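**User:**
My hope is that you can spare some time for a protein that puzzles me. This is the protein in question:
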Amino acid sequence: KRYLADEKTSFRRLLNESRCEMACELLIGGDLPINHIAQLLDYSSSANFCVAFKQWTALSPKNYRETARLE
């Protein structure tokens, strides 16, 4: 905990960063349903995952997937 404080971060922040990266990769790299991605990332519901994802990226998982595939 002290080490994380020295680095000006927290376990929760690192967990969210990891979840965001993994979610982005899963959304772009395959056709897994969003509820399955939520389960893989240990969210209790797809709704909770969608709220968190939108906070991270300002896009819903569906919109992120569609936008990323257009690029």
